[in-house]
Amino acid sequence: MTEEHARELDRSDPGWRELFLVPPADGGRYPDTAYLAGNSLGLQPRATRGELLEDLDDWARLGVEGHHEAKRPWYPYHELLTEPAARLVGALPAETVVMNSLTVNLHLLMVSFYRPRGERVRIVIEDSAFPSDSYAVRSQARFHGLDPDETVVRLETGQQVLDYLRREGDTVALVLLGGVNYLTGELLDIPGITAAARAAGAVVGWDLAHAAGNVPLHLHDWGADFAAWCSYKYLNAGPGALAGVFVHERHLGDPTLTRFEGWWSTDAGTRFEMAPVARPPASADAWQISNPPIFAMGPVRTSLELFDQLGMTTLRRRSERLTGYLEGLLDELTPGRPLSLLTPRDPARRGAQLSLRIERGSAAELARRLRHEHGVITDAREPDVLRLAPVPLYSTYHDCWRAADALSEEVS
Ligand SMILES: *Cc1c(COP(=O)(O)O)cnc(C)c1O
Question: Is position 133 annotated in a ligand binding site?
């Protein structure tokens, strides 16, 4: 497959690259990077800076009055994010809130949804869980006075999770898995595992860090108890951006749930009654604690509006075409080279990302050479995995071609 063919595909199937700022290359033959690391940190939408400046200007112009008089008043600001976030993950607005960061939200949700009792104490995660999730569940086990080595069960595949639930389901309090695995790019059978976990009497939560903005989600219909995701990977809201939370409708307003609360947990209409006892709304807003950082919410709002306009169905279709194209290019390379694909072949079992195992030499060193010699930005996970994620919003077929061309030179 030739460079000219890649250019033709870009003409017939263009994305929305003009809406983003693509970093300049610091090596290679092209002015811009071929940016394939949007699964790690998404690129900046052009609209973000201007909209963020509007929020800053309102602070300068209005001071405290901005809470109610800003162009986008700060007091109810987070509500601007709720509906687009809900549509993104297939949830009801009442089930969704944007707040905090991902691991913090996982903890706040486990305060409500990890309630070990009697024999039912175990937490099932995947063996290749992102370390933050692993540390979070282990520390939750300790918080409840349990031994994390006995409480946390690490399983390798979705099938093993199903088998374990069949055999040991009545010992499982919580199943907490990544919807799309960060390392392999595998998309798990979220509805199937959710149904099996609930049938076994366990609570099921999903970490959608690599799934939100990558694959279509239907959290409400799938019946997950809770989910959380970050906004700086496929959602392009900037480093450390505020994260999202889903709590299924059946739990909203349940007075028996434990929850950590603050003044933003109480119903907004009663907040300034300054009452000593909170009256939480029957919505995911009840999980909020503090008044939110407006200048961190702005970039999430800008990004979610873009996803809302385009729709995940459209993005997913282009994503399948781009990733399939990159897969074809890598298939031409891998025979005779110390490279193999870790990601499932079936487009229904993966998102945008393809992961390569680098069987000789260091993945990090390879990523450095791709960047500095070719202007191709990928992401290495020590010791031997290179992740490449063409993002349907802004990646091009030519970016994929450049990555494959650079790999053909660098790996022999
Ligand atoms: C990216 C990622 C995180 C990062 O956690 P933060 O709290 O945002 O720092 C956690 N879990 C998974 C699965 C991730 O992919």
Answer: yes
**What separation in Å is there between the alpha carbon of 181 and the centre of ligand 1?**
11
Report the phi/psi class of residue 390: left, alpha or beta, with left for phi > 0 and alpha for psi in -120 to 50: beta
Could you tell me the two tokens for 252? 């909203």
To the question of whether residue 102 is assigned a binding role by annotation, the answer is yes
In the chain, the domains with their CATH numbers are 3-46+312-410 (3.90.1150.10), 76-310 (3.40.640.10)
Mutate which of 133, 134, 245, 353 to test ligand 1's pocket (most atoms within 8 Å of Cβ)? 133
Say whether pLDDT at 1 is over 80: no
| Residue 255 CA, ligand 1 centroid: distance in Å | 30
Q: How many residues does the chain have?
A: 412
157 near 208, Cβ under 8 Å?
A: no
> Which residue's alpha carbon is at the smallest distance from atom 10 of ligand 1?
132
When pLDDT is cut at 50, 70 and 90, the band that residue 182 belongs to is very high
**What Rg, from alpha-carbon coordinates, does the chain have?**
22
Average pLDDT, the chain: 97
Q: What's the pLDDT tens digit per position in 314-332?
A: 999 999 999 999 999 999 9
Cα–Cα distance between 141 and 134 in angstroms, integer? Answer: 11
Cα–Cα dist 130/249, whole Å:
27
What is the atom index within ligand 1 of the atom nearest the CA of 207? 13
Phi and psi torsions of 19, nearest 5°: -85, 0
Nearest residue to 354 via CA among 333, 371, 369: 333
Pairing mode of beta strands 385-388, 354-358: antiparallel
Residue 83 has pLDDT above 90, yes or no: yes
The annotation status of 67 as a binding-site residue, yes or no, is no
The pocket around ligand 1, CB under 6 angstroms, is made up of 101-103, 130, 132-133, 178, 182, 207, 209-210, 230
Residue 197's Cβ-count burial label (10 Å; 0-12, 13-18, 19+) is buried
- The pTM (predicted TM-score) of the whole model is 0.97
Which residue do the tokens 């993966």 mark?
Answer: 350
Nearest CA to ligand 1 atom 14: 209
113 a known binding residue?
A: no
What does the DSSP assignment read for 12-60?
HS--SGGGEEPPBPSSSSSSB-EE-BTTTSPPEEHHHHHHHHHHHHHHH
